[in-house]
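My current task is to audit a protein record that another person submitted. Please read both lines and tell me whether the C-alpha cells look consistent with the sequence. Do not assume that whoever made the record got everything right. I have pasted the whole thing underneath without changing anything:

===
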Amino acid sequence: QVQLVESGGGLVQAGGSLRLSCAASGRTFSSYAMGWFRQTPGKDREFVAAISESGSGTYYASSAKGRFTISRDNAKNTMYLQMNSLKPEDTAVYYCAARKVPRALWNPSYDYWGQGTQVTVSS
C-alpha cells in the first residue's frame, strides 16, 4: 500500500513558476514508477510527466516538454514537478500517481493516486 499526498499548488500569474511535491508513505517508494496527471472539469485525466523508479528515465507530454521538469528523491520518498512559464491552460487539479509495472506510463492505469492539488494560472 502506498499513500500519496500532493502539495505546492496555488494561484500564479502567467509566466510564473510553481513546484509541486508528492510525498509517499511506505518503504517501497523506489520500486514504483511515478507520474503526474492533471484534470479539469468535464475532461479526462491528462498525462503530464512520468519518471522511472530510479529517476534515470523521464517522459513528458508535449504540452509539458521544455517547461516542466519531473524529478524524485528516493531517500525522501518524494517526487517533484517543477513548472515554469506557466500558462492559463495549465490550470487544473494535478495528481501524482504510483505504478508498479513501469510500462505505458502515459496511461492513467496507475495503482495509487493522491488527492490532487489545485493549480490556477491567471492571465
Notes: Residues 38 and 46 are 5 Å apart (CA to CA).
